[in-house]
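To illustrate the input format used throughout this study, we show a single complete record. The first block contains the structure-token representation of the backbone; no residue identities are included at this stage. The design step must infer an amino acid for every position from geometry alone.
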């Protein structure tokens, strides 16, 4: 259950997410797994509470927002008196307010939460994927040379493949997979 909270002048909503400790420990060592856990939690929150969340996030140096006691109470289902801040959350921040708050405190990123019914279905995307059929580029076949190197007994030792890719000047531009 989302819990509205205030600290100083900030208003925010806290939603507890619990993972198996072994999963969390493995994710601490692997950044990809850590990102996947965060994205899964965000998707679950969006679906369960009908929120639209910004998928950009910033991991702060402190661990939790609020007290461990409050988190335990929420996880165990104990009801506590909480201040209802839904009215404060409904008021929209102006662009100037967002800009001034991020300028004064660069570590603070205001999150805008919109219910799914508030988001228009015909929103124009900022980034549009253009299919390759729209771009008329002549595909050049790479020049290659296949060579089998033999040992002193004329048994095949290794296979060498040299490929010249048009427009590629550095190996760092290539994503190579050999199987």
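Output of the design step:
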């Amino acid at each position: 259950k989302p819990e509205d909270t205030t600290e100083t002048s900030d208003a925010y909503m806290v939603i507890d997410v619990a993972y198996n400790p072994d999963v969390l420990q493995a994710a601490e060592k692997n950044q990809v797994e850590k990102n996947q856990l965060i994205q899964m939690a965000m998707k679950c929150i969006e679906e369960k509470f009908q929120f639209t969340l910004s998928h950009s996030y910033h991991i702060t140096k402190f661990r939790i927002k609020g007290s461990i006691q409050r988190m335990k109470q929420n996880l165990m289902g104990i009801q506590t008196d909480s201040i209802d801040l839904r009215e404060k959350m409904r008021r929209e921040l102006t662009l100037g307010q967002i800009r001034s708050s991020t300028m004064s405190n660069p570590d603070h990123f205001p999150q805008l939460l919109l219910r799914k019914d508030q988001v228009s279905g015909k929103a124009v995307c900022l980034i549009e994927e253009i299919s390759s059929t729209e771009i008329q580029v002549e595909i050049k076949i790479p020049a290659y040379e296949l060579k089998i190197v033999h040992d002193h007994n004329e048994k095949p030792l290794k296979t060498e493949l040299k490929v010249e890719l048009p427009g590629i000047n550095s190996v760092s531009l290539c994503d190579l997979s050999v199987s």
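Structural context for interpreting the output: The chain has a mean pLDDT of 68. The two ends are 49 Å apart (CA to CA).
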